[in-house]
Amino acid sequence: MKIKIILIQIVLLCPFLGFAQKEKKEHYIIHGQIDSMPQGKQYVYLSSIVRDQEFHTDSVLMKDGKFTFRGRVDEPCMVNIYINVPGRKYPATMKLFLENAKINLRATWDKSAHEYVKNLKITGSKVHEENEDLFDGAMKRSGRDKIREAYLEAEKRRDTAQMQALTSANRSALELYTKEINDWIAANPHSFATLRYKSMIIPPDEAGLDKFEAELGQMDSVLRSSFLARTIYADINEQRSRLKIAPGTMAIDFVQPDKDGKLVRLSDYRGKYVFVDFWASWCVPCRAENPHVVKAYNDFHKKGLEVLSVSVDDKREAWLKAVEQDQLPWTQVSDLKGWENSASRSYLIKAIPANFLIDPSGKIIASGLRGDNLHKELERVFGNIK
């Protein structure tokens, strides 16, 4: 009777034991150790974790060079493990293709190393090993790893002749490297490493995008429905949108209020060359670029150039103060909605300064013109200054 009760209890517990094992598999644990780490408290950060269909960041305190992260991911994802370094602009960073598994990481702290860490060794993640085989393996099989090492040594010696020879050798090895990559991708269509590689090679043209999208549609259903795949499809759609504002296409019309509240349309400039400049008062590179735009305006305005500046500011006072300080004489517009500015959203502005040169017919003829390149393009359009 006692044996029968025990057997019944075991049977009843089986589903819960199975569930517990499943739950255990759905979590990751990262044991990290960084040798020669300076003494003292130091936080380690884990970023770009895909959990609940969003990106997350975690942090733990490192003690004696050791740290442990615990959590879960929805799917394998490339994450950054980084440590802030006092006096250094960028943190020390290590990349890991994270999945729900027990993972061990070991490295050595070395300030002379590029990322302040060297001898990085990661075990326990199958997809990380696949990703290493894809990229590092292709580097080794093509010989580009040795060429890179030799180039860095020649660079230290300032041996320009050797550097040129190695650059030529690298071009030759690149063909083999590309073949190795393509062969690996063809042999491993169900790997997340393959999907991540595809996320890095979004085609620039419509025909390429159509073919690329069709190839994605042939991939494993798990990959197609992943968070990473959705970001790739979003990138495809964005690239298609960018093609609509590429040189050779008609500019998208927009309307924005000027400093007096008068509505100004881009189409008001039809029949003239207009340089549309996206900027902001708080943007240091924009402010540094303004003198170049002022010079271009002074040199080419009499020949027919107009400038229309669109600010992504959200504070009227700061915007107008910068206009006065930089002595910008042309029309300034802004809806003062910051990055939600309707014109900047139409032109997919995610970083500034950004600009478009539009001809009298309303066609975009150039974009991203800065410094001397702006002057050279205007000389091409209007002829040399006389």
Automatic annotation (TrEMBL):
It comes from the Bacteria. It is found in: Cell envelope. The keyword Isomerase does not apply. PROSITE patterns: THIOREDOXIN_1 (PS00194), THIOREDOXIN_2 (PS51352). The keyword NADP does not apply. Residues 245-386 form the Thioredoxin domain. InterPro entries: AhpC/TSA, DUF4369, Thioredoxin-like_sf, Thioredoxin_CS, Thioredoxin_domain, Thioredoxin_ResA/DsbE_sf. Keywords: Cytochrome c-type biogenesis, Disulfide bond, Redox-active center. PANTHER family: THIOL:DISULFIDE INTERCHANGE PROTEIN DSBE. This is Peroxiredoxin.
